[in-house]
């Protein structure tokens, strides 16, 4: 692992005097469509914040790893699918901090290991595979106790990394956006932790739109409200659930064409699981005239480029 570690910046907590791993650019995208519809689209290139703990995962892990240190845990344990950005990021972050890491992976071990899991192993993450039926119990005390008997004490980070400390980290990230003039803030949604952090930071002052990467993502609204707690009933956020392109981890020809076009037109890549679907959705909403003339939209590139390794391109 090269570059500065995240250890020395884990303790920074307030927005005024905040250190980030890499200060990432905000890039204005140009497209005849935006001109025609009278809107501006900016993208916060947060995928560039760290080479391996990329995008929202850095922010979601930040306070969790700080808490693991505070508790003097030597090991972190978390859950994810075989192509999980969260598993990838957690393995890299744990390595940087000198923590042991255990990844509980959904489904069977298949060899050769895919790039996500071989990277995780190369960071020293111990991978344990659970049958899908057992994996489903990931939030149940029984399974966690069984894992503690097996592995000893560990700091538990839930699947996808979403918990209150993740929301706190994303809220801090959102502080870095406050000097940017925009009307709408857009981010992809997997578990909803990231969107909850953005909503917490902006309250009613901005319109916030989440794009579900899951099919049938309507249930995520309640998950997001649960993360928000007492402050959950803001009027100014919403969830778009139509742009899943076949479901989580799936791609369509249409989506792949959009992603290729995007990369050649704007000079950087989106990931196929999250930001790609959000941007395809956003372009569609702009086309439909969803945003009034003069609107400035800020979309977050939440990272996840390693996810391309799991996509079979024909
Ligand atoms: C994990 C991930 C998300 C989803 O974040 P949640 O907090 O789970 O909603 C979005 N984009 C990328 C690139 C991710 O890796």
Distance between the termini: 33 Å
- Which percent range describes the beta-strand content? 15-25%
Strand order of the largest sheet: 1-2-10-7-8-9
The helix count comes to 11
Shape: globular
Account of the 3D structure:
The chain contains 11 helices and 10 strands. It has helices spanning about 30-35, 55-70, 85-95, 115-120, 130-135, 140-150, 165-175, 195-200, 220-230, 255-265, 275-285, and strands at about 25-30, 40-45, 75-80, 100-105, 125-130, 155, 185-190, 205-210, 235-240, 295-300. The protein has a 6-stranded mixed beta sheet. α8 links the parallel β7 (about 185-190) and β8. The model is unreliable at about 1-15 (pLDDT under 50).
Topology of helices and strands:
Blueprint: E1 26-29, H1 32-37, E2 40-44, H2 56-70, E3 75-80, H3 85-97, E4 100-106, H4 115-122, E5 126-130, H5 132-135, H6 141-151, E6 155-157, H7 164-175, E7 184-189, H8 193-202, E8 207-212, H9 220-228, E9 237-240, H10 253-266, H11 275-287, E10 296-300
Helix pairs in contact: 2-3, 2-7, 3-4, 7-8, 8-9
Pyridoxal-5'-phosphate (PLP) binds next to helix 2, helix 3, strand 7 and helix 8.
């Amino acid at each position: 692992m090269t570059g500065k570690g995240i250890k020395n910046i884990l303790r920074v907590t307030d927005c005024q005097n905040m250190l980030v791993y890499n200060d990432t650019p905000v890039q204005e995208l140009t497209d005849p469509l935006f001109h025609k519809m009278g809107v501006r689209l900016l993208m916060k290139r947060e995928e560039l914040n760290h080479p391996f703990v990329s995008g929202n995962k850095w922010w979601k892990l930040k306070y969790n790893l700080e808490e693991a240190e505070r508790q003097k845990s030597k090991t972190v344990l978390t859950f994810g699918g075989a192509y999980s950005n969260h598993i990838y990021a957690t393995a890299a972050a744990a390595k940087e901090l000198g923590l042991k890491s255990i990844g509980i992976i959904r489904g069977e071990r298949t060899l050769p290991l895919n790039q996500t899991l071989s990277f995780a192993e190369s960071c020293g993450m111990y991978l344990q595979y659970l049958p899908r039926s057992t994996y489903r119990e990931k939030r149940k005390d029984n399974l966690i106790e069984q894992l503690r008997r097996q592995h000893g004490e560990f700091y538990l980070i839930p699947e996808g990394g979403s918990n209150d400390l993740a929301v706190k980290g994303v809220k801090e990230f959102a502080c870095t956006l406050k000097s940017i003039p925009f009307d709408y803030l857009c981010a992809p949604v997997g578990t909803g932790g990231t969107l909850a952090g953005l909503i917490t930071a902006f309250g009613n002052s901005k319109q916030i739109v989440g794009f579900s990467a899951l099919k049938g993502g309507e249930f995520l609204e309640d998950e997001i409200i649960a993360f928000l707690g007492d402050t959950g009933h803001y009027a100014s956020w919403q969830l778009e659930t139509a742009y899943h392109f076949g479901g989580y981890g799936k791609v369509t020809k249409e989506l792949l064409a959009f992603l290729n076009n995007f990369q050649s037109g704007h000079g950087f890549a989106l990931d196929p699981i999250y930001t790609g679907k959000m941007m395809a959705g956003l372009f569609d909403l702009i086309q439909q005239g969803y945003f009034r003339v003069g609107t400035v939209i800020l979309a977050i590139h939440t990272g996840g480029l390693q996810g391309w390794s799991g996509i079979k391109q024909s």
